[in-house]
Amino acid sequence: xxxxxxxxxxxxxxxxxxxxxxxxxxxxxxxxxxxxxxxxxxxxxxxxxxxxxxxxxxxxxxxxxxxxxxxxxxxxxxxxxxxxxxxxxxxxxxxxxxxxxxxxxxxxxxxxxxxxxxxxxxxxxxxx
Amino acid sequence: xxxxxxxxxxxxxxxxxxxxxxxxxxxxxxxxxxxxxxxxxxxxxxxxxxxxxxxxxxxxxxxxxxxxxxxxxxxxxxxxxxxxxxxxxxxxxxxxxxxxxxxxxxxxxxxxxxxxxxxxxxxxxxxxxxxxxxxxxxxxxxxxxxxxxxxxxxxxxxxxxxxxxxxxxxxxxxxxxxxxxxxxxxxxxxxxxxxxxxxxxxxxxxxxxxxxxxxxxxxxxxxxxxxxxxxxxxxxxxxxxxxxxxxxxxxxxxxxxxxxxxxxxxxxxxxxxxxxxxxxxxxxxxxxxxxxxxxxxxxxxxxxxxxxxxxxxxxxxxxxxxxxxxxxxxxxxxxxxxxxxxxxxxxxxxxxxxxxxxxxxxxx
Lengths: 128, 364
Description:
The structure holds 2 protein chains of 2 kinds. Chain A is of the alpha+beta class. Chain A has a single domain (11-122), classed as CATH 2.40.50.100. Chain A is built from 4 helices and 9 strands, in the order E-E-E-H-E-E-E-E-E-H-H-E-H. Chain A has a 6-stranded antiparallel sheet. A 3-stranded antiparallel sheet of chain A has the order 4-6-7. Chain A is globular and about 35 Å long. The two termini of chain A are 19 Å apart. By secondary structure, chain B is α+β, with helices and mostly antiparallel strands. Chain B folds into 3 domains: 7-51 and 140-233, Gyrase A, domain 2, CATH 3.30.1360.120; 52-136, Aminomethyltransferase beta-barrel domains (Alpha-Beta Plaits); 280-363, Aminomethyltransferase beta-barrel domains (Elongation Factor Tu (Ef-tu), domain 3, Beta Barrel). Chain B contains 8 helices and 19 strands. Chain B has helices at residues 7-12, 32-41, 61-68, 116-125, 151-156, 204-214, 224-233, 268-277; strands spanning 16-20, 23-28, 44-47, 52-57, 80-87, 93-103, 106-111, 133-136, 142-147, 171-176, 179-184, 193-198, 220-222, 281-288, 299-302, 305-316, 321-329, 338-343, 346-353. Chain B has a 6-stranded mixed sheet with strand order 10-11-12-9-3-13, with helices on both faces. Chain B has a 6-stranded antiparallel beta barrel with strand order 14-17-16-15-18-19. Chain B has a 5-stranded antiparallel sheet with strand order 5-6-7-4-8, with helices on one face. In chain B, a hairpin with a 5-residue loop joins strand 5 (80-87) and strand 6. The longest helix of chain B is centred in the middle third of the chain and has 11 residues, at 204-214. The interface between A and B is medium-sized, with 11 and 16 residues.
């Protein structure tokens, strides 16, 4: 269920790499924990993010949750569709529900993340 | 954790379970927004068996319940219920509750799950001098609510009891899906509907029958998540959020349930004094202008002064805006007055709006 070629963080973000550009979202596990998403608050283009810095927040009906940057870099795009349809995060968390795109500063950050197999194992540990 | 008799039904329906004051209860089944809209547009079934039921019976049951609560229990004839409070001598809330008159000397007090033990002790402590017995029957009762514009239609297929003849806050006894029940025209959603109480050892028969017969009417199971957003749109109080032992019945805007003329009751002097002096703060409904959600405990500012905290606050799925309740200084409670709520490192604008936020068509 989780895309094979993504990297995953312990905070349940995913990042998909395309050259030096990373697309970031939250995993299906995370959206399920949050429940219905109603607002997404993200930084402006050009914002510099450190590894594991809070990017912004996702507000669901019942909770508010921080999203952390799985890598360091510069924000280049926000998924504008989320303004009108925040439920995309619930419905298609791994593709159309992506949140921001970032120009990766330091590729070695990816070493600190999990592969899909590692993430699935990590989830088993949580769900037990 | 405590489980209701319907626990297995929730697991079978894959409800997302949470700890609600020691009860393992479903938070949501198909999602809060979907469930909320189902109750506003069709109907939804709730398990509310965690609520407490305390029976007060005996020769002086009427006098005793009159003493404990500010509403006028003498107006309740058998098969009628009303909303009221258990008040402290200061006129604040031990709890809010429904009082059901089962028989002339028998009253069933339906209280909040989080307060059941506290309320029972409170009631027992005050019964000296009254010829009454008090019994906590909470573990025996299963309570369900069927709420929404289609609720009564669905009920018609489940019982011969002519409950549609019941007015609001009336109840009667009858069989639902073959099980003996108390059927009450009450609820906590702002919609028409019923609450069903039963002592049956097989209450899951009722639960399953309602979902089965309700299928064609769009009935779905509803969790506590949507219960909270529904009740807030209808500005129904949640104990612990909106009212507690620090807020008085008058400050909460519930003066309509105080009947000073009925005679003495706990908190009467304090409430009468406060009515004469005037209240200093009052619970108001607000709307957030623009985006953002004001959640419980977020600070409330008028100018640079923090004057309160948010009591209840959520995104309202039917109204599609962010709403909440807070106690503001009395000179700042008029409709349209503006203030700010601190949301993380920002302040967002809010304004006082009329309540309830939501009224169903027939109440407009």
